[in-house]
Amino acid sequence: MPNASVIPDAYRTFPLAAVIRDFQLPFALAGEREATLERLNALAPPARTLALLGIPAYHMGLDAAEGLHTFFFLSGGMAREVAHALNEVGLFEHAKLVTKAIGLFGRTYPLDGDKRMSFFGYTTGPDLNAFDRKLMAITADFAKKGDFIARVEDYVRASDHLLAMMRTHAQTVTPRARSEWLALQLWRDIGSLDKAKDCKRYLATPDPSRAFMAITQFEWEVSNGGLPQFFSNSSGAVAPEAAVALEEAGLAKAALLLREAIDLFGKPFERDRYKRFDLHFDTDETSPLEQRLYELSDRLCEIASKPSYQQAPLLFAEKHGLIPDIEAF
Q: pLDDT digit string (tens) for 252-311?
């Protein structure tokens, strides 16, 4: 059982919606159309429909306000199949909007990713173009049609076959996946860490939850872009707690390297992202501090002892009994 004294009631169990997402995720991340179809063709029709719905659902989960737009940019090769799946589960208005978005690309819909991406402003610069704005309008209408992800869960709950499938799949969901889900829920409750005043809710979170949040944020950012990305983004605000959590997780060498990085910013450590950025990162060239952070990142990755910093969040969660159980459904 998870540590009920530090985890909100809503997050003590890994719910059906999260089990569904875990099942769908490999299909959402399969890549180009051919690879996705190869995975989908191995499934029976009800499971195939559920997997297809997971492709736009993945982008909705990242940002509902931009989800459909992002879906067409990254995964739009499956747009026609997704529209068909939406119709199959009775989400007719959603399907109409996907079909309307397909029409924006002209008479011949581009299945090729490069051709499809050429319609978007992102391919030439940071700004949206006229096509993007039309697609964003459809995206906004899609979001207004109700909670798409909740409707997918309703579809599963209405099917004994799919529920049985999800019960079987639930037994394969790893402790790491459950701990990452918990971290995402805790961080969504906190919101922004951009300014020092925004950190109040985070700092008011009791340990070990706060330290767990810090160590997961550290792992996500460093794995993506090293210590420079961690410290230049709002995530850098959690650095002091992340160092403590690394030590608690048994990664003493990694904790020492992170403390060495923290000391580069002087005392007291600046939690305000904008002040930290203006002082240390606001330049066209790599600063001496950034260069040192890159060196420390290399050393962090080269630590010979196991476990690695990427395993730290799970180790910390296991030590403190934070991993949610699977919901009974």
A: 999 999 999 999 999 999 999 999 998 888 777 888 899 999 999 999 998 867 789 999
For residue 40, give both structure tokens. Answer: 């989908």
Write out pLDDT tens, residues 55-71: 998 887 655 667 899 99
Q: What pLDDT shows up at residue 64?
A: 62
Based on the number of CB atoms within 10 Å of its own CB, is 6 exposed (0-12), middle (13-18) or buried (19 or more)?
A: middle
Q: Could you tell me the pLDDT band of residue 129, with boundaries at 50, 70 and 90? A: very high
Q: Which of the two residues, 61 and 98, has the higher pLDDT score? A: 98
For 218, the token pair is 């550290």
d(CA 297, CA 286): 15
* Cβ burial, residue 67 (10 Å; 0-12/13-18/19+): buried
CA distance 211 to 198: 17
Q: Helices marked H in 43-158 — which ranges?
A: 45-62, 67-75, 79-88, 92-103, 113-117, 130-144, 148-157
Confirm if 113 and 32 have CB atoms less than 8 A apart.
Answer: yes
CA-to-CA dists, residue 296 to 216, 248, 309, angstroms: 19, 20, 13
Helix, strand, coil % over all residues of the chain, rounded to 5: 70, 0, 30
Q: Angle at CA 200, nearest 5°, toward 194 and 202? A: 80
| DSSP annotation of 105 | T
Alpha carbon 326 to its chain centroid, in Å, reads 20
* Structure tokens belonging to residue 50: 């559920």
Q: Which residues are within 8 A (CB) of 284 and not within 5 positions of it... i.e. 6 or more apart?
A: none
Using the structure block, give the residue that is written with the tokens 């989400």: 91
φ, ψ at 13 (rounded to 5°): -125, 145
Mean pLDDT of 132-141: 95
**Domain range list for the chain:** 9-173, 177-326
